[in-house]
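ok so heres the complex, two chains, lmk if somethin looks off
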Amino acid sequence: MDPRTREHAETLVDWSARIEAGDDVVVSVAEDAHDLGVAVAAALGERGANVVTTYGSAELDRAYVDAHDSDFDADPDHELALYEHADAVLRLGGGRNTAESAGVPANKRRARDEATRGVREARLDTDWVSTVHPTRSLAQQAGMSYADYREFVYDAVLRDWSALAAEMDRLKQLFDGGETVRLVNEGSDLTMRIDGRTAVNSCASVAYDSHNLPSGEVFTAPHATAGHVTFDVPMTVRGEPVRDARLTFEDGEVTAVDAAQGESVIREMVDTDDGSRRLGELGVGMNRGIDRVTDNILFDEKMGGTVHLALGRAYDANLPDGESGNDSAVHVDLITDMRGDSRLEIDGEVVQANGVFRWEEGFEPPA
Amino acid sequence: MDPRTREHAETLVDWSARIEAGDDVVVSVAEDAHDLGVAVAAALGERGANVVTTYGSAELDRAYVDAHDSDFDADPDHELALYEHADAVLRLGGGRNTAESAGVPANKRRARDEATRGVREARLDTDWVSTVHPTRSLAQQAGMSYADYREFVYDAVLRDWSALAAEMDRLKQLFDGGETVRLVNEGSDLTMRIDGRTAVNSCASVAYDSHNLPSGEVFTAPHATAGHVTFDVPMTVRGEPVRDARLTFEDGEVTAVDAAQGESVIREMVDTDDGSRRLGELGVGMNRGIDRVTDNILFDEKMGGTVHLALGRAYDANLPDGESGNDSAVHVDLITDMRGDSRLEIDGEVVQANGVFRWEEGFEPPA
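and the predicted structre for the whole thing:
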């Protein structure tokens, strides 16, 4: 076994999920994530935690859904009981075919999502963490060789997380004390208000309200957006390639959409409901271990030197207790690259220029 | 996918486990049983059952146990809750290495078995069924090519089970009405009492108290055993090859042991406790789809034309309500071949000669 697989497992169990002796843990192992599963099982055994291992097979799931008549039972007892009694759920993604769920009719998918809402809530109520094992199918999606992709994943995952958490706290403090953000790059000049919101220091640990490994972003819930922004990082949205989508905002709402490719999918998304015309998230990627786009949002949105904005639903963690933010059935992240001629300002002060934070070496304030 | 894999799945779901719409089913998928898992998921989806899929990986389990300090928590909440709320548990065996658990210290194995007794009882309290997917590691254990082994498994599994159940009922009725059984073959002349016991028609369905697929045996709990028996079907017992073990009984107890190979493991087993010196099971193999030994007790003991006897624990299903039969920490099946010059008598009447039942074509009563 690659020794980094063991390091990955220990990072997941200790830094991310904070597992202790006696914890009841569910580990979901995707089809090709077996090696990481073995390493995680060893780490959990060593810590004296208790394990139920589920098989996260997209192929089994697809076969089940295809054969079902769509009249799904609500929250099956045994599944609900499993998650209601679990302290933590570790999802080891990385299957054999990232397109395995392509072509499931939207109404069937929706029927199942609705029927299993209670199970999902029980799962999200645990100390859950999602990660991926580097598999050949993810390498293929990234357009990379298997060997190169493994380097990429471990560079992203095996960070000095507590040092990164301290660095990200700087940006969180600036966001928490700030009122407006301005984002300027070659295709963008956008202002958003962030007053009254709390930023999340998403450093890949449940102790920080962060549930992805890797992570490495600071995000908040903006409002009153105005101006325009171009998402020049290529993405796949609902199975469609999207290139250089450009959105214009007035009074917080999208007023114009165009794109070099995939304009129709962006329009469809924007037109979903009232909330999908507004932003739910402003996130700043700060993971310098991620230096290229791999068409996997778990990695892309954390890339150091990028900023992402999500149309749709906002996260409760960003909002004052009891206040609901932007509500929507969708939450779709789109990414803009700040590594060219760019700046990010909070209340008129430049905190990042050309993708470099003002506390980083090489920072040069714009003229 | 081999179309027989789908037939296997449908036999398991319909004939064996009697799954109905709304049933909460746990499916355990071994490392290399993925294809059968997909077929079972489709069958369960079609019937409108609900599924939690666990990953039955011997390698994960071994890694967990090796890393653990042996002070196992008793019956973890989440695992207990899963099985307590399940209607059925389908175990799809067939991993990558049948020796994966070799070398776990006996006291560690025992500590874990004891800690998880409640989980095991909850699982056995469901409509559980164990089967195996034909895998390369099982083919290797059987000393067969992968292609030949798949033929072998499907011949054993894809029977006309309701016809076999009807045939097996004949023997069950004879056992239930009988008082003594005598078994005679080249190396054996053994008598046992079976009065007051109820035979189980084990035809691979929970509707018949039968939890293995394949099955195909009729078994009861004998007592007052006298005479000698030679187990000429080669077996592996506790990792040791055993050949031509011969046991002598007086008043129900073993009084002499010898064997051409593996005598010490048989002695060790016999000497475990009081109950291990007595028989707990007399079983008659009636599955004519199984025509060779494959060193896998799930198949070997069901082979048509063989009889097996187990030293140790008896099954409650064979005993009058409230009565406990032979009690022991062990239950080890040993097999004798009846296809040579042999006979099986109930109360002095020959019911099988030379491996052929008296209702089968080719039956010739001994001179």
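quick notes: The CA atoms of residues 73 and 115 of chain B lie 6 Å apart. thats all i got rn
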